[in-house]
Specification:
Blueprint (H helix, E strand, L loop, with lengths): L1 H21 L11 H17 L1 H12 L8 H15 L5 E14 L3 E7 L2 E5 L1 E3 L15 E8 L2 H9 L7 E4 L10 H8 L1 H11 L5 E5 L25 E4 L1 H13 L4 E6 L2 E15 L4 E11 L9 H20 L6 E8 L7 H12 L3 E7 L7 E6 L2 H7 L3 H4 L6 E4 L15 E7 L4 H4 L12 H20 L8
Parallel strand pairs: 5-6, 6-7, 7-8, 11-12, 11-13, 13-16, 14-15
Antiparallel strand pairs: 1-10, 2-3, 2-9, 4-8, 5-9, 10-12, 14-16
């Protein structure tokens, strides 16, 4: 009884402090259940004072660094994650074998424009999955005239006029700056990166250059996965920085005969085995129902993967650890899932979902963070059923800036659980600067704001707590 009274007293004090803090703001403190309100406040206080997530992320970036699937960094990241999770007091920490991961090696890369008797260096990076230029690192590369296009339709039209064969196709369609949601702008432009080489090769092109997927004008080329589909003629593909895309556009406007010489040493050497890393915290009375917080552990190799997706990985770890540190005992079984090889085709997410289906596991909720470490704005849900069911929790988190409970997809990895009965959600954050860093050498710990990172972990933790501790939630269809 003494312990219960002491706990109630602490919660009452937290509630008093919480209500005083939000007094005068435009969003009133929630008036539903004071115990839940106080506990959410405690989550935020712990996250923002301890800054544990930023410590983990700093260590991951410094001691492991880039974590491309099948690389030494990938193996080191799995070891780091397992060792770190083992110190947090979860019931079990284990790895799940993930086979069939593409083992791609970047190799050397350079490009130069030739116009008016001048050579102009271009900042490029091989796209993930690209084949090499003839001879690879030891070859002389290739040189050809450049043709600029803004769409696949324009590509087809120029090919019909005989203007593509033997040329380097330069895709220069920028992300649309009028979109407030930068993810939507990215989605409208990324098809040229994904399918650009495949489409150009059909018309006899010898290589492609693709404008980097960012709204920023800078000298950092972006990488990212691309596909040849069923095409047997696999031509080399590279991203070009936005500043040099603008420069090449200007050269072509003045001199349509401008050529580019290009060398890529990129090549694929087969497949390898990697691992999902999973920490499990068993529930008390609903332990057969599983709740997941996840991010992907792998990253591209130009930076150290701080934003994509080291941030989401440590936020998922921190979200559950906050509940444990505050003494919460979950009703449902909770898992941290750090997915393998998202960047080369969601392989870890697909393996996790297939394994869950095979074992007939019952997932109740899965939350993913894979949009960078920006200030959290709310959650995006896979469908209206999930949004409607979890909308009831919005008043508890609104005072922390989580105003958006929207339908717009969850996360690429947890999305593989679609159809298995779980509510699927993604942490929504401010992404106005995210694509400045995404898939570039700038994706480093210096791009992370510690407070924003911890706010994201607290947001995920709060939703996990409210879902588990609140009144029963209907099952997703």
């Amino acid at each position: 009884m003494e312990r219960k009274n002491r706990t109630q007293g602490i919660l009452a004090l937290l509630l008093f402090l919480f209500c005083g803090e939000v007094h005068g703001q435009s969003i009133p403190a929630p008036t539903q259940d004071s115990t839940h309100t106080a506990f959410v406040r405690a989550i935020y206080s712990e996250a923002l004072s301890a800054k544990q997530g930023h410590q983990w992320l700093s260590d991951l970036c410094a001691t492991v660094g880039p974590r491309l699937a099948c690389s030494p960094g990938d193996a080191a990241a799995v070891k780091w994650a397992k060792q770190t999770l083992d110190t947090l007091g979860f019931d079990t920490v284990y790895t799940q074998t993930v086979t069939g991961n593409t083992h791609w090696i970047r190799g050397d890369a350079w490009a130069r424009a030739h116009s008016g008797g001048k050579k102009i260096s271009l900042s490029i990076a091989a796209l993930g999955g690209s084949e090499s230029t003839p001879g690879g690192d030891k070859g002389k590369g290739l040189r050809a005239q450049v043709v600029e296009v803004l769409s696949f339709q324009e590509l087809d039209d120029l090919a019909a006029a005989g203007k593509i064969k033997g040329k380097i196709v330069f895709y220069n369609r920028p992300m649309d700056p009028t979109y407030i949601n930068t993810g939507s702008a990215y989605g409208r432009a990324v098809d040229q990166r994904w399918a650009g080489a495949m489409e150009a090769s059909k018309h006899g092109a010898v290589a492609v250059l693709v404008r980097s997927m960012t709204l920023s004008l800078d000298d950092f080329p972006h990488t990212g996965v691309m596909s040849y589909g069923e095409e047997k003629n696999k031509i080399p593909a590279a991203g070009i920085s936005t500043l040099d895309a603008e420069a090449l556009h200007t050269l072509l406007a003045k001199d349509p005969t401008t050529e580019v010489s290009l060398l890529l040493g990129a090549h694929t050497v087969g497949t390898c085995t990697s691992y999902n890393v999973i920490a499990e915290w068993r529930g008390s009375d609903k332990l057969e129902e599983i709740v997941v917080a996840g991010g992907h552990l792998d990253s591209w190799d130009l930076g150290t993967g701080a934003q994509d997706d080291g941030a989401g990985s440590v936020q998922s770890m921190h979200a559950l650890y906050l509940l444990k540190k505050l003494g919460y005992q979950p009703h449902r079984t909770h898992r941290v899932v750090l997915f393998a090889n998202e960047e080369f085709g969601l392989v870890g997410g697909m393996h996790y979902a297939a394994n869950a289906l095979e074992k007939k596991e019952k997932h109740a909720l899965a939350i993913e963070s894979d949009g960078g470490s920006g200030s959290p704005r709310g959650f995006s849900f896979e469908n209206e059923v999930a949004r409607s069911a979890l909308q009831k929790f919005q008043p508890y988190v609104a005072p922390y800036g989580l105003l958006s409970f929207s339908v717009g997809g969850s996360g690429a990895d947890v999305g593989q659980l679609a159809g298995q009965g779980a509510f699927l959600a993604g942490l929504s954050v401010d992404t106005q600067r995210y694509f400045d860093y995404h898939h570039t050498a700038q994706d480093r710990i210096e791009s992370i704001h510690p407070r924003e990172l911890e706010l994201g972990a607290a947001a995920m933790s709060a939703l996990l707590y409210l879902f588990d501790a609140h009144s029963p939630i209907p099952s997703a269809p």
